[in-house]
Predict the structure.
Amino acid sequence: MKNYGYTTAYMLAIVMVNYLFAYVPTFTVFGEIMTPVDIIVGCVYVLRDMAQREIKQYVIFAMLIATGISYAMADKSIAFASAAAFFVGELIDWAIYSYTKKPLSQRLLWSSAISAPIDSIVFLYLIHQLNWLGFTLLNCSKLIGILLIWYFSMRHHQKLAKVTAVIS
């Protein structure tokens, strides 16, 4: 039986992020509204890449299902902006991940580094808060999340490779 742990984590992360945006208190940084949830958004990108390793191009269906659940649960204007931003960002991730022949570690970073800023622009534009400071802060918080997940994911894969090499 195949393990779908990353796919499940990816779908739960999408739903959780959209739900938390409605309930986690915000704070102001240089006059811009921020939330700790912004960091979690970055984690979703790397989880998507790992989910795609499990279920290939069908990761789009996982995204659509999770986005639909999110839309039913969250504030509608935030959910719409988030869904649109996720959709654009995830399509970019999917294309980079699917069509480049780079090693996994490079695909994870490239897909996230390109799609995260575009996702931020779409989201902030749709909630009428697009400005350079807000974009920079949101994007930096996403990149922190992306790098954290990437680092721990790559460490986990390296440990598995060592164990496999010892067993062989």
